[in-house]
């Protein structure tokens, strides 16, 4: 498959996930069915992105692993920075603007801890699709004349893909737009997509997977 075709297909994956996912939530009233379908959808999208760009990922990983311990140490520090940026941005916004029109995740609150772990799989694997889309395709593929504009465009779009998470509250997505700038900066400064993937993955793991696993562990006590 030609490089341009790969890029075109890659740019379609997240919009298709959002479109199909929105219909899943409307069609199914069973939270378990919706969760299973959503997880499968995101997993398929991630696998497709990895398949499309496996050569690029392999080449970038070859360079990333040469100083793996140092890079992982830096990634941990950058994750702390990401947490601080999210908190600082939220505090700068009026709290009333961050209120959701309807509570999110009500249907998932009735699920057991084991199902909560399954729900955490989505943010656990999403960084692969999101970083390849926003940082590589929307930022790294543009010339030096347009990258400054795309630096902000990709961050805005990154925030907007969390539309379903916040029931369309754009104000609640602003911290993630700022986070998109942060991830974009990591990618540009490092010149390696794995730098932003690892930081993004660590952040999502600490925000979702680790708390879910803790709840599952506490279930037995």
From TrEMBL:
GO terms for molecular function: metallopeptidase activity. Keywords: Hydrolase, Membrane, Metalloprotease, Protease, Transmembrane, Transmembrane helix. Belongs to the UPF0177 family. Residues 114-206 form the CAAX prenyl protease 2/Lysostaphin resistance protein A-like domain. InterPro entries: CAAX_protease (IPR052710), Rce1/LyrA-like_dom (IPR003675). The chain crosses the membrane at residues 33-56, 68-88, 108-126, 147-164. This is CPBP family intramembrane metalloprotease. It holds the Pfam family Rce1-like. The lineage of its organism: Bacteria, Bacillati, Bacillota, Bacilli, Lactobacillales.
């Amino acid at each position: 498959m030609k490089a341009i075709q790969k890029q075109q297909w890659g740019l379609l994956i997240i919009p298709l996930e959002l479109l199909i996912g929105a219909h899943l939530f409307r069609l199914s009233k069973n939270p378990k069915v919706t969760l299973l379908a959503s997880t499968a959808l995101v997993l398929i999208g991630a696998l497709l992105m990895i398949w499309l760009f496996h050569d690029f990922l392999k080449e970038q990983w070859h360079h990333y692993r040469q100083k793996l311990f140092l890079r992982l140490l830096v990634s941990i520090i950058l994750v702390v920075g990401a947490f601080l940026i999210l908190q600082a941005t939220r505090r700068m916004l009026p709290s009333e603007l961050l209120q959701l029109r309807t509570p999110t995740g009500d249907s998932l609150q009735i699920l057991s801890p084991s199902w909560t772990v399954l729900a955490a799989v989505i943010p656990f694997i999403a960084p692969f699709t999101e970083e390849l889309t926003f940082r590589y395709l929307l930022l790294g593929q543009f010339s030096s004349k347009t990258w400054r504009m795309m630096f902000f465009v990709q961050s805005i779009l990154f925030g907007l893909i969390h539309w379903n998470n916040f029931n369309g509250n754009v104000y609640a997505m602003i911290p993630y737009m700022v986070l998109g700038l942060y991830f974009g900066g990591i990618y540009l400064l490092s010149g390696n997509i794995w730098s932003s993937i690892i930081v993004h993955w660590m952040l999502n793991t600490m925000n979702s997977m680790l708390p879910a696993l803790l709840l599952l562990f506490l279930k037995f006590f």
